[in-house]
Design a protein that fits this description.
- The chain is an alpha/beta fold.
- The strands form 3 sheets. A 5-stranded mixed sheet has the order 4-1-5-12-6. Strands 9-8-10-7-11 form a 5-stranded mixed sheet, sandwiched between helices.
- α4 packs across α11 and α13 crosses α15.
- The longest helix has 34 residues.
- The protein is elongated and about 90 Å long.
Length: 494
């Protein structure tokens, strides 16, 4: 009998997973989601050009603070401005992790990607590229200045850990040509620099201009030309498959940029100006508005996610306790699946997967939904254990007084269960507040996202993180005191 029951639950679980898989199939086929010629039509209708980038790669793309607001600057941003101007569209920048950019492009979240991207064969199978607009002179090692006599060639890094941006050409070069070294991949360059300064990696492989930018803005770092061998393809604009009209328009702008030599005459000097300004005025006081904005988004995400988690958790708990096998199996499958998969994967799935079917699904809404759905599974188990902790005699007494099953749960069981599980629910809410930082991976401007922007703008790694830690502590400490207050009130009412 037990084996038959387990078999049915397993069958239901497979059914749910199969449904999710089928639901996600259109996402994997980018050509079904981004129709031929549709991107140019969208740009003309909306009068907006949405460009994806990873703004942590000075002087190509990075951020600066202007009147308390984030401003995206750099060579690639200047090119994006010229492309938008030629398309008679307003430029909208979406900043996200480098390894998420092509996914965003294939699922229609961005119209094109301009982020120092090299058109290698693997990428060409997924997306199209414009002509080359910039060809770097070679790869450089960024090392700690105190190690300048120690690391000069590939062989010097034997047995050491070398960093590179995840999904980049540099990451592949280390794997292919530095086989005696261990590669460390991170999504953000500023995190790699932090790893370098804290001796987690011995060096970082990056393009010449970027390596020299960090050297100029941090006296403890040094850029050294590497002996990595590479056919320098250069950087190009990535565009979804089947958009020949958009590729043609972008190439037209690049031709004009090349003819007027705008990269050397305008783009690079403009980027250098912002980098010098950042070097002189990179105090934390200037970035207080960033932290305030991040806290605001974090609180909003937490509140709405808690509401979703409580409502869904209550529903799932009742379904799991239900005598109806169908509802019971659905609840079990959902709870086990959500608790058995990483939350970051769930966030990416909701934004890029479900979001591909709902084109106007914003990153903030996707983040709230994903965190709320995840929280619901854990809240459900807390509520179920709380209901189970209530003596059966309480139910029998309520029914003997003439209360229906629903009213017995509403007026007798649930209130007592809530008192029993309040500490566990409190821990879940505190965890949820901290886990809101995960939505920074899809470009939600919460506290962690703002902290990364400050790291990029100031060339400082540890101080912004320390401030963010203090802010998170203040928020969680305040929430803990608030939860304790309500717990005392509930005990007092007893």
């Amino acid at each position: 009998m037990k084996k038959a029951k387990i078999g049915k639950i397993f069958l239901a679980f497979i059914t749910v997973i199969s449904t999710l898989f089928l639901f996600n199939q259109p996402v994997n086929a980018a050509d079904k989601k981004v129709e031929t010629g549709s991107v140019m039509k969208k740009i003309k209708q909306s009068k907006e050009l949405v460009v994806g980038t990873s703004a942590d790669y000075p002087p190509l793309e990075f951020t600066t603070s202007e009147n308390g607001n984030t401003k995206y600057v750099g060579v690639d941003i200047e090119l994006a401005k010229d492309i938008a101007r030629d398309l008679h569209a307003k430029l909208v920048i979406k900043n996200m992790s480098f390894d998420s950019l092509l996914v965003a492009l294939e699922t229609g979240k961005v119209d094109m990607v301009i982020s120092a991207m090299t058109p290698n064969p693997e990428r060409k199978r997924s997306v199209d590229f414009s002509k080359i607009y910039y060809k770097p002179s070679g790869e450089y090692f960024l090392i700690n200045k105190r190690d300048q006599a120690k690391y000069k060639k590939i062989k010097d890094f034997a047995g050491k850990t070398v960093g590179a941006q995840t999904g980049s050409i540099q990451y592949s070069l280390i794997q292919k040509q530095m086989k005696q070294s261990k590669v460390k991949g991170l999504g953000k360059i500023n995190n790699l620099v932090l790893a370098l300064k804290s001796n987690k990696v011995s060096g970082i492989v990056m393009e010449e201009m970027t390596a020299k930018a960090y050297q100029q803005n941090d006296n403890s770092l040094m850029a050294v030309r590497s002996d990595l061998r590479e056919q320098q393809a250069g950087n190009a604009v990535a565009i979804a498959k089947g958009q020949p009209d958009l590729v043609k328009a972008v190439n037209k702008t690049i031709n004009r940029v090349e003819k007027k030599n705008l990269i050397d005459k305008k783009y690079l000097p403009e980027a250098a100006k912002y980098m010098k300004t950042a070097q002189k005025t990179n105090t934390m006081v200037k970035y207080i508005p960033y932290f305030i904005k991040g806290v605001g988004y974090t609180i909003v995400i937490t509140i709405f996610s808690v509401l979703i988690g409580i409502i869904l958790g209550m529903l799932l708990a009742l379904m799991r306790l239900s005598k109806n096998k169908f509802f019971h199996w659905i609840a079990v499958c959902y709870i086990e699946f959500i608790r058995g998969t990483p939350q970051m994967v769930q966030i990416l799935f909701v934004y890029f997967g479900v979001g591909a079917l709902i084109s106007n699904l914003s990153a903030v809404v996707a983040g709230i939904i994903a965190i709320g759905l995840n929280s619901g599974a854990y809240v459900a188990e807390d509520i179920r254990s709380g209901i189970a902790s209530v003596a059966r005699g309480q139910t029998e007494a309520a029914r003997s007084l003439g209360l229906s099953q629903a009213k017995a749960y509403r007026y007798v069981i649930i209130p007592q269960a809530l008192k029993n599980i309040w500490p566990a629910l409190g821990n879940e809410f505190i965890t949820l507040l901290k886990d809101s930082s995960l939505v920074s991976v899809i470009g939600v401007t919460e506290l962690m996202y703002q902290t990364e922007l400050i790291q990029t703008s100031t060339y400082r790694g540890v101080l912004p993180l320390f401030i963010a830690m203090i802010i998170y502590f203040i928020m969680t400490f305040t929430l803990t005191r608030l939860l304790n207050y309500f717990e005392r009130r509930m005990k007092h009412n007893d």
